[in-house]
Design brief:
The protein is mostly helical. It has 3 domains: about 210 residues, no CATH class; about 170 residues, Orthogonal Bundle (Tetracycline Repressor, domain 2), CATH 1.10.357.140; about 110 residues, Four Helix Bundle (Hemerythrin (Met), subunit A) (Up-down Bundle). The protein is built from 23 helices and 2 strands. The protein has a two-stranded antiparallel ribbon with strand order 1-2. The longest helix is centred in the N-terminal third of the chain and has 30 residues. It is globular, with a radius of gyration of 27 Å. It starts with a helix and ends with a helix. The relative contact order is 0.07.
Length: about 550
């Protein structure tokens, strides 16, 4: 017993960084899907179906893994980071259910679907350890691995706490988590019906749950062929958001200081700006494809997944920019995480990579084209910030690259509604107008960095001309941008509003009482109100 205690103590003392943890977990899920779809006897899948299948496995097991991780840290009253090493070894159990199935069936994998049952049947399923499964569903390998996971968790808690009752309660808690994940669609529909009053909870049956997740084959412009994969694709939208919530909670539990430093450093003016671009693209998409305006719970989830993915990729670009701007930020932005020594450089870079991977996973829940757009965004952001190009050193070229990256977000919103996920029916007048506008106006973000940029030869407009003259140049550029919208959109009724908000914005920018850090928020507010008038005049 003493040897086991020493072994567990030694394991709990080991560390594994976040990027290694994520890569290993992605690899384990790959092996799981490889066994089920290539080694076992199964029907062939298209690339799209295989993507949905892989993502579904990744979401299901990662959420179950995170729930167990957080639960164990609460029961053992230790920092979750201490459990990371031992739990990544435990994650190898994910591979074994299909292997056990293949041993029993000589090559096939049992169909182990979710528990889709009435609320009253859930209790009997829980008490009997999935004892009344519908015909055709066999939890053979899954039951064995579930039981093994529960026993291992029981042993870990007992060894660590020496409290049999706590270990028993912990084991029941682990089983409840696994049961919750195995019945997740049922629980989701129960909660949804409770708030929406769609039907009485007592009347819910298995087929109602199957219809709920499979009937929405048209989610905005997205479409999934086959009931089985529309079911998984719909669940993936929920799972992605659940995963981000759990990862955020875990990060907060591991290190509150780092978590809040990341949140404070997110550049919220740019978040508003990119979210606005997405909504513009979405609006243009609805104009081109009005038949795809089919708002339902899954369409709303797709919109939220899109925004979260965009925020994540933006967060990754912020981190990479901070890394290469570290000497500048020590002068101009000492409140940022690296100058404050809140993060080590390697850990900060790993966090950026994790955010980027998560953004791509979120985009992939919608489809391949969305992931390609976010990858293009990140490449352009990398060229802007990182050597050997470090295009931010060159005036106008820097803002042109930034505005080109921003247009990827507009395209993202448009193809979310497009029937074929293409931009073929998007008028190029809007992207060209936005590229010109942003190229002229984005130097506003450089006003606060003059001291650091000047020392390290980053030749922005504010560095070249100084703050006072730069304010005048940027204010004039913004005024021109407002007026250009009238001519590009060929709408005379916009002229008085463009003139009014152009003048307002001009005087906001040249007002030296407004600090450079706050200036983008004032300008965005004026642009937002002007945008409301533009939408009313042109589209309504």
């Amino acid at each position: 017993m003493r040897k086991i205690e020493n072994f567990i103590k030694k394991i709990l003392g080991k560390r594994i960084n976040g990027i290694n943890l994520m890569v290993i977990f992605l690899a384990i899920i790959f092996l799981r899907v490889f066994i089920e779809k290539f080694l076992a006897t199964s029907s062939s899948l298209s690339a799209g179906e295989m993507l949905i299948e892989y993502l579904h496995n990744f979401f299901f097991f990662s959420i179950a893994y995170l729930l167990v991780w957080i639960f164990l840290s609460l029961v053992l009253k230790i920092n979750p980071q201490k459990l990371a090493y031992i739990l990544i070894w435990a994650a190898l159990l994910i591979i074994f259910p299909p292997l056990l199935d293949m041993l029993k069936t000589h090559g096939q994998v049992f169909w182990s679907f979710y528990l889709l049952s009435s609320p009253k049947d859930l209790l009997s399923q829980f008490i009997t350890f999935f004892g009344h499964l519908p015909s055709g569903i066999v939890y053979f390998g899954t039951k064995i691995i579930f039981l093994l996971a529960i026993i291992l968790c029981f042993g870990l808690i007992l060894t660590k706490t020496k409290d049999f009752l706590k270990a028993l309660i912990g084991a029941i808690g682990i089983y409840a988590i696994l049961f919750f994940m195995g019945s997740f669609p049922t629980f989701f529909v129960i909660v949804y019906d409770f708030f929406s009053k769609t039907q009485k909870i007592a009347s819910i049956q298995g087929y109602n749950i199957a219809q709920f997740f499979s009937a929405h084959v048209g989610i905005l412009g997205l479409g999934y062929q086959g009931v089985g994969y529309s079911f998984a694709a719909s669940l993936n939208l929920i799972y992605f958001l659940f995963l981000i919530l759990l990862l955020s909670s875990l990060f907060l539990a591991i290190n509150k200081k780092k978590f809040w430093a990341l949140i404070k450093n997110y550049r919220y003016a740019q978040i508003i700006y990119h979210s606005g671009l997405f909504l513009i693209g979405l609006g243009l998409g609805f104009l081109a494809y009005p038949q795809n305006f089919n708002l339902n719970i899954f369409s709303i989830l797709a919109l939220v997944v899109s925004l979260v993915s965009i925020w994540l990729v933006w967060g990754a670009s912020v981190i990479f920019n901070d890394i290469y701007d570290f000497p500048i930020d020590q002068i101009s932005n000492p409140q940022r995480p690296l100058p404050q020594n809140i993060f080590e450089l390697r850990g900060y870079a790993s966090l950026g990579i994790i955010l980027f991977i998560l953004s791509i996973i979120g985009a992939l829940t919608l489809g391949w084209p969305f992931a390609f757009l976010l990858i293009a965004f990140q490449i352009l952001a990398w060229f802007y910030s990182a050597p050997p190009f470090r295009l931010k050193k060159f005036p106008l070229v820097a803002t042109l690259v930034s505005s080109s990256a921003s247009i990827m977000i507009l395209f993202f919103g448009f193809i979310l509604v497009s029937s074929n996920q293409t931009i073929h029916y998007l008028s190029w007048i809007i992207p060209i107008l936005l590229v010109i506008t942003y190229t002229l106006s984005l130097p506003i973000k450089d006003l606060k960095d003059i001291a650091g940029d000047k020392k390290y030869s980053i030749w922005t407009i504010p560095v070249i001309f100084g703050e006072k003259k730069s304010r005048l140049i940027i204010a004039s550029s913004l005024f021109v941008s407002f007026m250009l919208s009238v001519f590009f959109l060929n709408e005379k009724r916009l002229f008085p509003w463009a003139l009014l908000f152009g003048i307002i914005t001009f005087f906001l920018v040249i007002n030296e009482k407004i600090k450079p850090q706050r200036l983008p928020y004032w300008v965005l507010s004026a642009v937002f109100v002007y945008g409301l008038f533009l939408v009313k005049i042109i589209f309504l």
